[in-house]
Write a structure and sequence with these properties.
CATH superfamily: P-loop containing nucleotide triphosphate hydrolases
Shape: globular
Number of domains: 1
Number of helices: 8
CATH class: Alpha Beta
Structural class: alpha/beta
Bound molecules: adenosine-5'-diphosphate, magnesium ion
Distance between the termini: 34 Å
CATH topology: Rossmann fold
Length: 224
Amino acid sequence: MRAPLLAVTGVSRTFGEREALRAVDLEVAAGECVALLGPNGSGKSTLLRIACGRDRPTTGEVRFDGEPMTEDEVRVRARVAVVGDALDHYPDLTVRQHLELVSVAHGVPRDRIDALLREQRLTGHAGSLPGALSSGQLQAMMLASALLRPRDLLVLDEPEQRLDPRARGRLADVLRGEGDRGGAVLFATHQPELARVAQRVIALEDGSVVADGTPDEVLAEAGA
Ligand code: ADP
Ligand code: MG
């Protein structure tokens, strides 16, 4: 059997006395779309940060394509695109300049920038600075930046937050589109409807995995 693209094994994370994650196992196969579902404080963001190498587990390990996961390595950064829960950006660069920066940094042609701006309904804001954007538009800019770069795994932390219903519909299309191009997705969400886009749903409660199965199985159990 091929090793999974991402393998999180026995991962715990404590902050002082607080156990944010308890012995979590999670695998994502190449091309697979996996949703993490759970209430506020259940450990979704902590797990995603550890899964993409931005934070280290207290115990346990994370492997990406069979090798230890770390964001310090170009090998990993070149293949994992992340939109975390903080919308990091440069206040003095326009929306288009953010995308141009990503294209230069990752060596991808600029000719997809216009199409991505259109898809994210940002064409009219291409020359705007982040401070002039709504939080939904800022989120859309971060998503466009992630979609511009090469990736085998896309990690998104509650990407539906701040989006209006139409933008949420487009987000579901983006998640499906990743699978069509053979890319894997791991995303945290609050929204059962969005979790339905995934092939597998993992439910977290108080830092532990309480369900892992198809959306139908897990959402029926959660009464959603
Ligand atoms: P979720 O994303 O599901 O809302 P988080 O992963 O953000 O959950 O948080 C899980 C738990 O870990 C919460 O109790 C939170 O307060 C705690 N936590 C997360 N990050 C930190 C941190 N940097 N320092 C202290 N506690 C943290
Ligand atoms: Mg969170």
